[in-house]
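Why do we bother with a discrete structure alphabet at all? Because it lets us treat a fold like text: something you can write down, compare, and reason about line by line. To make this less abstract, here is a complete entry for Orotate phosphoribosyltransferase. Read it the way you would read a sentence in a foreign language you are learning: slowly, and without expecting to understand everything at once.
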Amino acid sequence: MKQELIKLLCEKSFKYSEEPIFKLVSGRMSQFYVNCKPTTLDSRGMFLAGHLVFEAVKDAGIHGIGGLTFGADPIAVAASFASGLKDVPIKAFSIRKTQKDHGIVKWIEGDLMPGQKVAIIDDVATTGGSTIMAVERARSEGLEVVKAVILVDRQEGGLENIKKYVPDTVSIITRDDLVRYIKENPLPE
């Protein structure tokens, strides 16, 4: 499954250049561009990501899985669905970027109670900032964050930064996995 997901990510979500031509959110230029959404919103990509993330969290004793909207949402739903297929139900949840200001004011959408154990997920980690924000917001709502899973680690310090907040942090795929695949399987020009 992992190799198939790497292939799909390289076809739909990953760009690589010998020169830094891709502008990041920080304004910095990079050799690598990763946008997982075309893959995680694809039916096969969703299937693969969901099963691989479920495998990464199945023994963590969690009640829920989610992260900052929108990158984490399709992965959380897919992993929750995979957990149901495996008869180990884990609820999906989503963490808002801006706090709801009407009704019941909260950061999180989903069916979880304070004190429950959760895993925070993200589609890509560069510095880890959005994942750390999700961890802090989940904790502010009373959830116990016991694991973090990153679908693609850009290997730029994000995983190490997240581990300061959640020691049990893993990635499914690394930038090196994607670059290796591209170099071994060049796309037709």
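What the structure line is telling us, in plain words: Helices lie at 2-12, 37-40, 43-57, 73-85, 129-140, 158-163, 175-184. Residues 102 and 108 are 13 Å apart (CA to CA).
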